[in-house]
């Protein structure tokens, strides 16, 4: 039992046998889910790999020698017990993807050198103990995705929110002030970001007839009533993606 608590010892042979070739030809060293408690120094002899996966282990520390992996584009350290990262991680200039989610990282133990990773596109800091985000991360101009969920954040610096290439920012389940999480006021009209239009040829004959009938009713109403009431209500109006409740069973069947 005492030996089991020390974690599995990784030998160079085990490490070599754990190298996989990804679909795009990259050499990936996969040591995930192997019960590792200390960084295996033997893998420093395999520093020419493109990807390194040490996720789902019990690592508490990553040594400065990580800087030997200068070809590294993909580094996955999620689901360990890391409390800090070495400043040397900033030397991995080719790093495209960095996942340090689900660890024990605090804001003060995030190295400032993270802002040197100029080629970084994806950064996952979720499920840690961060109470703030360094404004210096705004230097990562190539970031397209950043995960900040499940931390202790009360704000996100504008330098991060306004990164020029940022497409996805996940900051769910943080204790932001109520003013930033206010729900939108109720509206009788459902606002949607995307509206899917259906062409006539894609509708069955009965659906097309219903739509045409309702369209005719609307046109007649416009002609008869020059000044419509303040709150018009068309309870029978049905379209293929309508939230109307009436006759929904007909839509489901068709």
Automatic annotation (TrEMBL):
<feature type="region of interest" description="Disordered">
    <location>
        <begin position="220"/>
        <end position="254"/>
    </location>
</feature>
<dbReference type="InterPro" id="IPR003591">
    <property type="entry name" value="Leu-rich_rpt_typical-subtyp"/>
</dbReference>
<dbReference type="GO" id="GO:0005737">
    <property type="term" value="C:cytoplasm"/>
</dbReference>
<keyword id="KW-0433">Leucine-rich repeat</keyword>
<protein>
    <submittedName>
        <fullName>LRC18 protein</fullName>
    </submittedName>
</protein>
<feature type="domain" description="Disease resistance R13L4/SHOC-2-like LRR">
    <location>
        <begin position="66"/>
        <end position="197"/>
    </location>
</feature>
<dbReference type="InterPro" id="IPR055414">
    <property type="entry name" value="LRR_R13L4/SHOC2-like"/>
</dbReference>
<dbReference type="InterPro" id="IPR050216">
    <property type="entry name" value="LRR_domain-containing"/>
</dbReference>
<dbReference type="InterPro" id="IPR032675">
    <property type="entry name" value="LRR_dom_sf"/>
</dbReference>
<feature type="compositionally biased region" description="Polar residues">
    <location>
        <begin position="236"/>
        <end position="245"/>
    </location>
</feature>
<keyword id="KW-0677">Repeat</keyword>
<dbReference type="InterPro" id="IPR001611">
    <property type="entry name" value="Leu-rich_rpt"/>
</dbReference>
<dbReference type="Pfam" id="PF23598">
    <property type="entry name" value="LRR_14"/>
</dbReference>
